Description:
The structure is a single chain. This protein is an alpha/beta fold and 342 residues long. The chain folds into 3 domains: 6-50, lambda repressor-like DNA-binding domains (434 Repressor (Amino-terminal Domain), Orthogonal Bundle), CATH 1.10.260; 63-168 and 300-329, 3-Layer(aba) Sandwich (Rossmann fold), CATH 3.40.50; 169-298, 3-Layer(aba) Sandwich (Rossmann fold). It is built from 12 helices and 12 strands. It has helices at residues 6-13, 17-25, 32-45, 51-58, 75-89, 103-116, 135-145, 169-182, 198-212, 230-241, 255-267, 301-316; strands at 63-68, 93-98, 120-124, 150-153, 163-167, 188-191, 223-224, 249-252, 277-279, 296-298, 324-327, 330-332. Strands 2-1-3-4-5-11 form a 6-stranded parallel β-sheet, with helices on both faces. Strands 7-6-8-9 form a 4-stranded parallel β-sheet, sandwiched between helices. The longest helix has 16 residues, at 301-316. The radius of gyration is 26 Å and the shape is elongated. The mean pLDDT is 91.
Amino acid sequence: xxxxxxxxIAKEANVSVSTVSRVLNDTAPVRAxxxxxxxxxxxxxxxxxxxxxRSLIKKETGTIAIILPDITNPFFPxxxxxxxxxxxxxxxxxxxxxxxxxxNRESEYLSMLxxxxxxxxxxxxxxxxxxxxxxxxxxxxxxxxxxxxxxxVNGNIAKxxxxxVYTDEGAGAAMAAEHLLELGHREIAFVGGLxxxxxxxxxxxxxxxxxxxxxxxxPKERQLLxxxxxxxxxxxxxxxxxxxxxxxxxxxVNDNTAIGAIKSTIEHGLSIPKDISIIGFDDTPLAxxxxxxxxxxxxxxxxxxxxxxxxxxxxxxxxxxxxxxILQPELIVRQSTGPVAK
Length: 342
């Protein structure tokens, strides 16, 4: 059986395609007799508009995309979970684009998504987290933003004018430092992250600022940056523990590195938190899957995804949402932090 299109219905009803569109989407009044004729033809042919037809009718595809750098990092699937649930409730389907930290792959996805004519994009990580984004990569994203709405999550492009949804990571890092200070710790280290990424350095700077308020600081030899994986956390923690004067507490850039730090500490024959306290960041499912359970900073990841979709949906529908939505972090105290040993 030959499939019927919106154009076939318009031809059989002797009306314009736009009239059929108004009936299908109930977007404007149509004379009752005309509506009845069109609906009769639709019923006769059991017509159901596919995605391409809906795109022609509404100038929308009903799809949005999310670009993220590392699907294996639990933080990003948690954000996606909030975004997908909200998007489904609003009638969207998703393209999930995992770049594996490759900026060229980001560019490939941007080109593909423009070709696919998605209704909008949520962008996490990658170039928007660089402390200094190269001009060509920034310009590419700004050019894309002229063709479709883009919402940035936990990142920014200077002078890009993008709508943003983000957690105050600096405030979260300050909470972590304050928690350790209240427990009596004065010898504190920072583990994980990359110097070129704003999401790392905003945490380092916030921790240093909080410590300076108490006449303390983290010396350079106790700022062991590397990356964001469990193995990186384990390796950098081992360096700290192999020195003559190890810290009594460690703040990690994320939960992955904190898990690695815990593994290294146990392998060195030390007890957590009796000998050393460890605190993570993100409150991913890993935080409660490890023993001892991890004290960490919640970024409200589900809400990050949900709010990003809400802003994007508003932009797609010509609304005027706030340029910036800032979520507040929360300290989640579990078993991996305790008073400094006397």
